[in-house]
Amino acid sequence: MLTKNAVAMHQSNRRIGMTLKILTNLFSRKIEEGIRKQGQEPITPMQAQILCLFGRTKRTSIPQREIQSEFGIRGSTAANILRLMENNGLITRSPSPTDARQNMVTLTETAHQQHTHNLGFIQEFEQDLQSSLSQEELQQFFTIAEKLKKHLE
Hints:
Number of helices: 7
Strand content: 5-15%
Radius of gyration: 19 Å
Helix content: 55-70%
Mean pLDDT: 85
């Protein structure tokens, strides 16, 4: 049994940033392992999330700025991720028909097939994560995560 001093010392050593970084690394590793086990070409978790965005919205093209906004990433970060996806044949980028300053991101048939193949795994993974928490803990998690997100924006 831990003494009050030991508990206080353990809690004082806790860091939100480090905990989030560790969770992100573990999350990424599990996604990559699951995709590899599916026999698919490895993609990063962010690439998988972008593919899922297309699946969720049921659209064939999405403005790059919307991708940036959806995932809270900067333009240069999005450009690098999308450039790699384009080089790997997962997307194409073209100027928006309504705003030449904006790129439209379109899934290729290869990406559509890969997303369809990985969707079951990703849904199971999400269910597994959520099942490890009670409904009350899930609500607390999302409330705290949203609060931290707003603070950081």
